[in-house]
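Follow-up to my earlier ticket, as requested here are the two runs.
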Amino acid sequence: MNWFEKFLLICSGSNLKLLEKSPTEINKHVGIGGVILFTAILAALSSGYALYSVFDNHWAAIGFGLLWGLMIFNLDRFIVASMRKSGNFFRQFFAATPRIILAALLGIVISKPLELRIFEKEIDKQLNVIINRNKTALQDSVNARYTQLAGSFSNERNEIYARINALRGEYNLASTELEKEVVGTATETTTGKVGYGPNAKRKEELKTAKKEELDAYLVQMQPRLAELDKEIDLLSQNKQKELDAAKPTEEGYTGFAARMQALNELTKNNKILGIASLFIMGVFISLEMAPVLVKLISPKGPYDYLLDKHEYSFKIFGWESKEKMDVSSNERVLVHKKRSDRRIREEI
């Protein structure tokens, strides 16, 4: 065995002394150690990219990636090393079920950040779609709220302007009637005689009254209109400030959760991309489960028999040590009892 094979055997969690006695098992355990090692490397890369997308810091991403990779390596190594080839297949499968479920979960966790990297260009485009959609939704929400707040002011201002327009219309109508009366235009409300007569005088008085009424209403409503315009302008400024402060931007919406949302929408809307995502996830789940499945489906070999013998020898040694301790304890009790009986007889 060269140094690399020994290193992979250490990664597999196998006993090197027992493997030296069963050389036919070395290749199988080298393969298991390789799968565990490369799974840990992929986990380190995946977690490092995920952390970099969150904090945008190379050193933090490298440190956390190495830590996560070592944890996955140690966990996989423990899972494989703790499995024993004892009992029938169904018993072994039942015992390995929790380990298989854990391996599947780890495969999903490892695959997602790498999927984000693989589909980075598509995700960036989808992020722009999400940002624009969020902008539109935010603008609609803010506009609806401020429209409701400004509704009473706008309605009152519209009522005032409607009254002003009505008074102005009455004044214009009175002016037109006066002009027709003076010119001598025959209508239902004019006499048709040219000149300034009694009827023209009445129409002039009506025009003057309408003008005075219009001017008086304008003077009366001018302060209120200024207040209403000020309130509406203030609400409009507040609305614009809120939109500027709360609207999502491309720089502020590129985190890990946002990219996961974009990937989720892409896989739902694009069947080809969804299938590709499932295959990538399946590959990583298979890689993570491979050491457990290989250990489960492989037949019991010389290494397993030697391992059982080695562990059983410790069980026998433990039982023998316990029996010796029990015998020694019983002997001490008997000796103490004999001494007590002899002391009692001497005293008698």
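Run two:
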Amino acid sequence: MIPDILKAHLNIAFIFKKELKETKRVHESRIAEVESGRQREFESKLSDALQGLRKQHEEQIQGYKEEMERTFSAKVENAQLTAARNSEFANAAREELMETQKRVDTLVSQVNQYQSQNVALESRIQELQNLLDYDRDVHRRRMAEKEEEMAQAQKQAQAQLEEYEHLLDVKLALDLEINAYRKMLEGEEQRLKLSPSPSSHSTATQAASQGRRFLHGKKRKIKETKKREHSTAFKTIQHVSASGNISIEEIDADGKFVRLKNHSDKDQPLHGWVLRRRIGSVADVNYKFPSRFNLQAGQEVTIWGAAAGVSPGPSDLVWKSQKSWGTGDNIGVTLITDYGEELAERKIVLVPRGEESEQDDDYEEITGSEVEFASQTKRRRKKKCCLVS
């Protein structure tokens, strides 16, 4: 029993020594931080304090020895009783720990299962998001394609509508020309005292009814123009010449258009070709055909002035820089190739009546519907002219 008490006191003394060492170390660190001049004073005070603490600790150790001898026996008995009770508590705690470990293992397995399910759900969400993005892109592309198709369909519908309007205008103009030629033919038949054929009379009547139904204003204008021409004392002489397959079919007297025709069975490219217009002493003006323009075999092309007031067809051209081809007593249009060769020419000259007999013998007077046929028969004779009353 006594050796155990001594050991306890030695332990206490050892602890106090450690505390003293720690205190000394702290005081030494504090002394190192102060000025060098007061270092000795702190050491002396520290040694006095250590001596006082040593005496105090020795007195406490002596008291502790006596007290521990009295309480050691009681504490041993209490420790034995406590050990017995603690063994029971340890068994219960061990059992509870085993149950807790089982519950922890179960919860860990559930957490792992939930984590795997969460990963699977996240991957599924990502797949669905990618699929949604792909479907959105496909839908956007399809909508853009549909909008483009709709725009193209609208353009096609607009183009077809414009083409229909142009064809309607062409039909009305053709009906008007047919009616005019029929009237001229009837006038020639009456002048020559020929009986008109029933078919031509019915056709003329039908054309006249169509002209009255669609173009009353234009018809009145043409009639007034004819009256003015017949009332004037001048005649129109047209000089026509052509050395190739392209001829100048017509020059509008009001300067609205000039018409060409390809008499061959092959398309003729007109890139670089020029139509030169001459009016009296006015400076010549050239119309240059657009690039990649071809005059198809057996077809005609009409070059309208910018202020002609008509809707040109798909095969027609417009001279945008000139409002009109011009009017006057002496109008000439020449077709010139890209090499400078003059292939065709047509002139319109107004001469007083009675002086046309002084013209060349090659000039022929053409009246009525013979104007159309003369342009076909005379175009192949170089330097051939015709007289139109």
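The only thing I checked on run two: The CA atoms of residues 167 and 313 lie 7 Å apart. Let me know what else you need.
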